[in-house]
From TrEMBL:
<dbReference type="InterPro" id="IPR011856">
    <property type="entry name" value="tRNA_endonuc-like_dom_sf"/>
</dbReference>
<comment type="similarity">
    <text>Belongs to the UPF0102 family.</text>
</comment>
<dbReference type="InterPro" id="IPR011335">
    <property type="entry name" value="Restrct_endonuc-II-like"/>
</dbReference>
<protein>
    <recommendedName>
        <fullName>UPF0102 protein YraN</fullName>
    </recommendedName>
</protein>
<dbReference type="Pfam" id="PF02021">
    <property type="entry name" value="UPF0102"/>
</dbReference>
<keyword id="KW-0540">Nuclease</keyword>
<keyword id="KW-0255">Endonuclease</keyword>
<dbReference type="InterPro" id="IPR003509">
    <property type="entry name" value="UPF0102_YraN-like"/>
</dbReference>
<dbReference type="GO" id="GO:0004519">
    <property type="term" value="F:endonuclease activity"/>
</dbReference>
<dbReference type="GO" id="GO:0003676">
    <property type="term" value="F:nucleic acid binding"/>
</dbReference>
<keyword id="KW-0378">Hydrolase</keyword>
């Protein structure tokens, strides 16, 4: 996993994609340590993407990984707008429909 550099270290700055991948990997490891089972990552369907799909027992869990350096504007959870929530729900429904009842 790529390490996220301290502020001001421009020689080691990660691209947004690299930083996103690093946070998604960290989120996956944390969820697995809590007993969830990994199903898929970066699932793209028409109109959206889901960062992680996990299983918690019989429950399918759709995960949007967000990171903010500061809670000044409400933190990561506040950055998931109503529009983004609708896109996630739509994408999750499409993914579930493609699973032919296996979930």
């Amino acid at each position: 996993m790529a390490q996220i550099p301290a502020r001001g270290d421009c020689s080691r700055q990660l691209t947004r994609k690299q930083a996103g991948d690093a946070w998604e990997a960290a989120a996956r490891r944390w969820l697995e340590s809590k007993g969830l089972r990994f199903i898929a990552a970066n699932v793209r369907e028409r109109g959206g993407e889901i960062d992680l799909i996990m299983r918690d027992g019989k429950t399918t869990v759709f995960v949007e990984v967000r990171y903010r350096r500061s809670g000044l504007y409400g933190g990561a959870a506040a950055s998931v707008t109503r529009s983004k929530q609708h896109k996630l729900l739509h994408t999750a429904r499409l993914w579930l429909a493609r699973q032919n009842g296996s979930f």
